[in-house]
Each structure stands twice: as C-alpha cells, then as structure tokens.
Amino acid sequence: MIDINIKKQYGNFNIEIKYNCNEIGITALLGRSGAGKSSVINMMAGLSRPDSGHIIIDNRCVFDSGSNIDIVPDKRRFGYVFQDGRLFPHLSVMSNLTYGMKLIPVAERYINLDRVIELLDLSSLLDRRPAKLSGGEKQRVAMGRALLTSPSLLLMDEPLASLDEARKNEVLPFIKKLSAKLSIPVFYVSHSMDEIFSIAEKILVLSWGKLTAAGSTREVLNLGNFNEITGAMPKN
Taking the domain 2-230, which CATH number applies? Predict the structure, then answer.
C-alpha cells in the first residue's frame, strides 16, 4: 500500500502530490525534465524532507509532519536504484550484491540471494568487477543489490536513462518481472512513455510539480493528449 500526500516549495516551484494505491505492481511517475519527478522520489526515500504531509508505505508511516515523524533513509527500508547504478568499483558483483544485505538482520531478510541471481540472470557475472560490465549488466546488479535489502518498496529513478536502446531492451524485461515475482511494489520514474507503457500497471503524470493525470496504464494511454497533460517544462 502506497499513501502519499506531500507538499514542498523550492523557491517559486511548488510540489503537491496526493496518491493512494493498495495494489502491488509497478507505479510509474511520468513527466518532462524539470517536472519534479526526482524531487518526489527523493522525498519518498528520505533524502529530502517535505514541508508538510505524510508518506505511508505498507501501513508503515515513514514521514508525518503533524506527528513529527521523519524516519532516516536507511531505516525506511526502501531499495533505491539510481540512473548510474552507483556500484562499488573495487568490489566484485557478488560483494556488491550482498553489501546492503549484510546490514539487514537475518530474521528480517525475506528475499533470497540465489533467487535474485536467477531472476536477474547474474550467475555468470558474480566474479567480475563493475569496470568489466556493460551498462545493462551494471543496472541489473544495482537492482539486485537494492532487492537484497528486503525492501518494502523499490524506488527506481530513471534507471535506464544512460543506456542505449539495445541495453534498455535488455533490462526492461527484468524490471517487469521484479514486482510480480517478488511481490514488491515498485515506484518507477521516467520521462520515456515507451518505457513506462511497457512495464507499468499504473501511471502518474507530473507537470510543474502537480499531478495532471493518474490511473491505470490503459486509462492514461487512452487520454492521448500528453503535450497538454504534461505541460511545457523548462530544462533542469
């Protein structure tokens, strides 16, 4: 369950997001550059503090301005996959995968290492260092590392932005399997409609910090007027 109701002001730019979803699946946040997508996901992760509101994931409140609740990022137990993967260059793939997992008490781990290796097809890469991986392989390892922290939510901030089309097509099927196979809700940020329509069950459209459309992928796709609902956005 995802329950977000947050506001934050950055100078003359205001973000106001209110969204509630009780289904496990991939929810995509779509918007042009400068729409506020990364700001929203960073507030969810605890990397930035909203001015007001609340964030509740899986019936657990991680932020509530009225009750002065603001759980620090590493205690929120959310997995976060960034654009560039951010793997540790001096560690092998296996050591990267298990780095965060080792910080989680054994009794609180519910995602199995072998299962993740199988799901993301990483068995042939385990002894390699990141410098010996392709861009798509790096992102698969980054996804595995995030999953092995046994998160209640997986946040993905334009994880394919730095990849060419061939590598994107390589990674997208893995992302699509994650939520269904592991029963983890995924919040996926992108400005690519093609990416989102291929993997997401639900879509939120963000323009100038405000939600202009929300619904199932089919419902949002049927709107068709993306230039209107996303608005003309300035570049970051």
Answer: 3.40.50.300
